[in-house]
Amino acid sequence: MRILAASDFHEKKPVYLKKIIKIYKPDIIVSSGDFCQGDWFIRPKGKKNAHFKKAAIKTKSTLKYLDSFNIPIYIVLGNHDVSKTHYDFSTYSKHLDINKFIKTLKNVKIIHNKKIKLGQFTLVGYNYIFREKRSPDYKKNLTALMKKQKNTILFTHDVPYGCKLDIIRNKKSPYNGKHVGDKYLLWAIKKYSPILNICGHMHENQGKCKIGKTLVVNPGFGQNGEAAIIDLPKLKIKFIKL
């Protein structure tokens, strides 16, 4: 099975994927979230509504474009993906509820807190959960999804804590050089040893690493034309930047 992994488009239509699909002919596409752009935090007061409306149009366009490939596409939501049930900003949500919108698409499916069979593999999906909103249910849900599974692919937006893929690489940031990944994901990986964790979030860290028996893959910053091809069962990875 061949997987095309690409995420973090941030409202930019990923036209580069058309070329990748033509060359590599993936069986499925997985996208780890951040279809939206969260710069509403810095928008001047009084202009947010206009910005949200424009952002919603761009995000819908991106998701419709992905749907047009007529390939099964599985997604989870990132920290920028606003939804009434994910990260509630009511002004934005009146223009776009991603969960509701995706139900109108044919090929794009959200698999948050779900598992699906892909031949001999099980794809387990989980959205980004803001640290201040996490609860014991997060760990409980991961346990329910992953226990007694074989050939599991853990599919998340965030990166597991403590690997080379979760390090901030921005000299202007006070967190430069620090690990900022998800400790719950690290726990789940160490306990259940999925064969693969496909993630995103950290734009600067396209690459792979091993945590125990698990291969962690970040396909990179989709807005800049980055992606990864993953061939199973051999776990052969090819990173792409167009």
Describe this structure in words.
It contains six helices and twelve strands. By secondary structure, the protein is of the alpha/beta class. It has one domain: 4-Layer Sandwich (Purple Acid Phosphatase, chain A, domain 2), CATH 3.60.21.10. The chain is globular and about 45 Å long. The two termini are 23 Å apart. About 3% of the residues have low confidence.
Total of domains: 1
Q: Give me the secondary-structure category.
A: alpha/beta
Residue stretches low in confidence (pLDDT < 50, at least 5 long) are 84-90
What is the overall pLDDT average?
89
CATH superfamily: Metallo-dependent phosphatases
What is the CATH class name? Alpha Beta
Most strands sheet: 6 strands, mixed
The helix-strand sequence is EHEHEHHEEEHEHEEEEE
- Counting DSSP E segments of at least 2 residues, the number of strands comes to 12
Give the name of the CATH architecture: 4-Layer Sandwich
Bulk shape: globular
What is the alpha-carbon Rg in Å? 17 Å
Topology-level CATH name: Purple Acid Phosphatase, chain A, domain 2
Q: Give the neighbour order of strands across the main sheet.
A: 4-3-2-1-11-12
